[in-house]
Amino acid sequence: MGEPQARTSRPKIPLFASLAGVGWKGLPRDLLAGCVLAGLLVPQGLGYAGIAGAEIQRGLYAAAIGLVAYVAFGTSRHLVVSPTSSSAAMLAAAVAPLAATDPSTYGGYAAGVAIGTGLVLLVGGILRLGFVSAFIAKPVLKGFMFGLALRIIVKQAPDFLGVKGGKGNVFQQAWTILSSLGSAHGLTILVGVGALALLILLPRLTRAVPAALCALVLGIVAVAWFGLGDRGVKVLGEVPTGFPMPALPGVGFGEAETLWAAGVGIAVIVYVESLGAGRTLAAKHGYEISPNRELFALGVANVASGLFRGICVGGGLSATAANDAAGARTSASAITASVVIVLTLLFLMPVFALLPSAVLAAIVIDAVKKLVDVKELARYVRARSGVLPHLTAAVGVLALGVLPGMLIAVLLSIVLLLRTLSTPTVLELGRVGDSHVFAALASGENVAAIPGLVILRPEGPLFFANTDRIRDVVREAIQRDAKPKQVLVNLGASPVFGIAASDALLQIRDDLEREGVELSLARVTPEAKAFLARSGALARLGEDRVFASQNDAVDAYLARSRAAR
Fold first, then answer.
1. Can you give the residue ranges of every domain in the chain?
2. 158 contacts 174 by C-beta, under 8 angstroms
3. Superfamily of domain 426-564
4. How crowded is the C-beta side of 435, counted as CA atoms within 13 Å?
């Protein structure tokens, strides 16, 4: 008998892998960082729940659960998964039309969207769709965030100024606010401006104290000490105490379709934001994160948040950067922050009844102001690239709403991608001296064309959307070269073919044949050659004109030229 074969085990997702490296020596630093992080997440959680239109405690439910659920499956040691401004704004756009007046129904729908978002992310992780984030163009994403931030600021302005909010799109709401400035409440403005000034100036003096927590505490103290609530300053009022038990949200089948569609859009933004923040910190500290594992972990975090009556969560760059600045080395800081938030829910919620709405609005405005990235837009203007996609996405969000704006952003990214692929650069190559090295003819004086041979290299794959472009370039090349003997097309950027590509090559061959010019192909992979054979194109092109390397194709041309003399 032979030796028994070792059992092969299925790959497993390690739990709490981001806690690797926790030791007694470094643990106190992580615990302290977690306490500092909680000081940021508590006011942010309250504020982002307000953006979402949900009861403010739901933001803390989401933060407490999202942090731990992500740590269990995620690969980043520093990423902070909690409510974010963008996901909250998209959540409000999805839920408000369904349950605008009933807080309990609204909360159930919000939790339903969180679960739907989580399921989309989970499926993406299982199907290994982490590459999808690369398909959203940066100018489009920046424009979407720019418009989203302006929407959030306009929505917070009534609480910040003590005026009534308007209805309609952002422009209509902004006009209503501007028209009401004459009736703004002076004391509310003073509280809001004071809180915003503290949020902006304190971080410039010290990072040791969370500015948002200071603004929150001072706002509560000011209301209690000076009786601001009795003098017209709006406060939050009674806030429920305690931590919920898990439960499925009461969502009917009629609403589920709408909520599921919202979950898809939120999932895209949550993943792109989270992956960007995670990669930034991973690069800084010299470790790698897994995009597909991140999808799965974010999915678990959102499902868990929804089951515990929370809202959507994601990896926010500001909270993640604050976690790093506080000295966090592992995810122990996130677990510590979660514990502090739970304790806050159990024992400190009555205190928030005195929190001025203007302070909460200031915290939100300060958190999203960085998304109004005027410097980045100015850079696009200087470069004369990306301006139109940026502005289109921003105006779409402002004029049409968050979800239509998201759809515009995604479609615009796809259009830009197809535009790039459909108009690839096609280089004309020449030989460098007498070597077997080839370069673009325009790249140097020592590069010369081979007499009678035009070598073209498309800098992109040949497919249905760019075949006409390639044919036009071939026609222009043979006209410039006064009808060469042969055109050699380097297909190194096309490892595989579709039927449109093989048909286009046949059309190019027919065009050249009418001009008395031969066609050869170089760097054709075995897979591409097999497809050409199956489609019948190889027989018409001639198998002796299809080469695995460019040097072989050039040598064959030179040999035929010598034989013809």
1. 17-417, 426-564
2. no
3. STAS domain (3.30.750.24)
4. 7
